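Hi team, as promised in this morning's meeting, here are the two structures we talked about. I've kept the exact order from the run log so nobody has to guess. The first one is mostly here for context; it's the second one we should focus on when we meet again. Sequence first, then the predicted structure tokens.
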Amino acid sequence: MITKEDIQELLHSTETYRVERTVSTGDMDKFQEAICAFANDMPGSRKKGYLILGAYDNGELSGLKVTDDLLKKIAAIRSNGNILPIPVMSVDRFTFPEGDLLVAEVSPSFDTPVRYRGRTFIRIGPRCDIASAEEERILSERCAASLPTFDTRPCREATIDDLDTEVIVKEYMPRAIASDVLADDHRQLKEQLASLHLFNLQVDCPTFAALIMFGRNPKYFMPGAYIQYVHFKGNDNGGAILNERRFEGCLYKVLPELENFLRDGIITKRPVPISILREKDVVNYPYKALRELMMNAVMHRDYQANMPTRLYQYDSHIEIMNPGGLYGQARPENFPLVNDYRNSVVAEMMKTLNYVNMFNHGVNEVRHLLNENNSPEPEFNVNLVTAFSVIVREPKVQVDVMGDENSSEETTTEKTTQKTTQTSTEDGVEKSAEKSAEKILKLIESNPQITVRELTKIVGLSRRGVEKNIKKLQEHGILKRVGPDKGGHWEIINEGQS
């Protein structure tokens, strides 16, 4: 990060293409356009750019007080998904006698052109502007010569005919590029694809990213580029195979199929009694959590490996494994706080197509969803060198309202009361009804011949209220009447009886 002394020099610097000074703290469009432009580094200086909040154009300080909320607001620009690929930037606060400065330091990107909401911004002297087609071409060629990641490399065996260009032109480009920019772009198709890192003009072939997302047969060029689903009986791979499926093809076609399969083929819902009178629906796995994990597996996997992305289902858990361990700056000791992208272009395309929403938020979101479902914490194995795996287990839900059958020393009513007191009620009406039902059960247990009239006097409800509670207890299989109204008796049904 820049020093305080360097900041003072920048305030009066003549290198206007590197500095954006402003006294505004709320013009987020202006800030993001500047950061996008600094990342594109149109002059090719490889010098960092600086967005400085709290200074006038002449370098004088405005007396701004930089709060923690403002720092968080500007820092969030990096990963909010509006600027793609994600810029490398840092944010800090500097205090002077005349006031504070908030400084966002932006490194030139190797992965150009960088776009803000579909538009490529560059610095032209002291101001930002949208890049022309020729300027975008320069940024694309510069990128092709410097990007090291696999998905940006050209696949020399492939041609443009190996891509579904109709889908790219009609479906992807309108989402990736602003409509007015796209309407004014009259370049040849290959040049347009090159600006999206989908084609390499120098060797006249598609990139691997293009084949992964829009290829007609990506598995031909990358044998492991598919998803393998297996459902095993039991809790290990030694059990019988109950179901098996492969998802093959480009991600544009595979990902919708995968979403539907997760929702309809894996997720199950069942009603579970949580008290004497109430039930709730419980799912074996939260759909959004499984979807997030699978999208991350597809996005971060090593496409050079022959191993497929694995989705294995067992009786009590699901294991997701993708080839390729933690990448780049991500390490076991800093996971999940630090994230890096093995396939930056694939990640960008998945964001554009709304398969991922935010960056570096997936793990926390999965944990939150599992916690809401009363599921155990996900178990990440980040120590594997050539793979990354996560295990998600089914929730442990008490489905027996009447209590644990092994606790035979407790009476039926005691078990029912214990379960009920452990369950928080959703509103006062249901809570009152449950207390009345418990009281009725206790009275019946002590006197099975007790009448509705006697219950009415003791419980403090109307005859209709008592009869309503008794009916619900009978409907839930907890209570039954043996014999006629006169001369008969009540019977509390123990576990295992019907």
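And here is the second protein, the one for discussion:
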Amino acid sequence: MPIHLNRRLSLAMVLALFLPAMSAHAAPDYAQPGPYEAGWRQVSVQRPGGGSFNALLFYPAEAPGQNAPLDSSGGPFPAVSFGHGFLQPPTRYTSILEHLASWGYLTIATESSQSLFPNHASYAQELSLCLTFLETEHASPGSWLEGAVDTGAFGISGHSMGGGASMLAAAQDPRIAALATLAPANTSPSAIAAAAGVAIPVRLIVGTNDSITPTASHGRPMYDNGLGPRQLVDIQGGWHCGFQDSSVFGCDSGPMSRADQLALSRALLTEFFELHLRGDQAAWAGVWGPGLAVDPRLNALSESLLQVEAGPALRARDDFPAELAVTITNNDTDPRDLTLRAESADFELTAEPAAFGPIAPGQPTPATYTLTISGTPGDTGQLLITATRPDGAGAWVEIDATLFCPADINTDGVVDADDFFEFLALFAAADPAADFNADGVIDADDFFAFLTAFAEGC
């Protein structure tokens, strides 16, 4: 079932205070420009049967502006094909296109299909052909893009009609790994129907005050009809033409400023592609984790096709491995592999990502996740446990944890004879838990290490 993230907003607000400390790679501000300058140039894209159309290509550059030299230092780069809205030139989306380029994306925006009666099926094909152009240039000796394109990391995006055409393209083009749209419009053929064939991660970004493609009749049916991991992120006070750098006659308006809406849009697009095209786990909390619900300007539905439960509360000894019982449910139609991770703002935590699977669909599957926490015995805190699919989508659960003294074998809060005799039983059985000095061997050294800790107490 979809998760109504706004219903746990109070929890997310609390998590927001410490999320940056929970990861070794805290998420940057994705609304701000990335590390590259943004260059651009007009390119000619060939059609399979002959002829061509023009597109604007924005890219990481050594200097800003038209025809600037490519900065290939961080390549090869992921690529995003972007579709403009009805009768809108791609230049009306320059701020978003330049922003993605500054983050190291080759962002190509077709100038085609700007007629009064566009063919949406052809438009979707043109969005895919833009990716084919990049693929070809990447493999062409002497091309300025030779070796510069990550052809295994293609995304697609678009606004309004371009968003609907993006859905059509994603349903047909297996090279596309992630789709993120702005106020997507239903098309002919139907983008709503096409959503049922899109198994990649999808983020549909909409606005509550959109009077041109109202969410109830466009974005929400796409979400409801979706096949794969999907999100509907609603900008409170956002409006249809607020996703563009400027408006034309006939555009709507809304209470959110254009500057704020564009900043939110840049962040939502960038973090989504950073996770799903670049595999940057720093973006995970803001995309599928508790960070998505932190901003009160956003209201979101999220369906990752994955559920994770953990517990009861973890009782762990300081700096000793502890086993956490986890239950995973795969709500997809096919078996899926997944990876468990753990983070904490309250403890020092050692927890290697653990792979499980394939997990059969529909059946809750138990698993054991081993982690080690360190701190001050007696401390209590929280752990954030995340489960992710290979495509990056996932689910999370927060559990309580309490830390105990190393010699408190039974974690009852007291170091006494019960702990002594329990250790003796473990030692006699050569149980891995008796490896007190963690050297991989159960021997006299473990016995004497335990006696020392026992004598020290807490």
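Starting points for discussion:
The radius of gyration is 26 Å.
Residues 1-25 have pLDDT under 50 and may be disordered.
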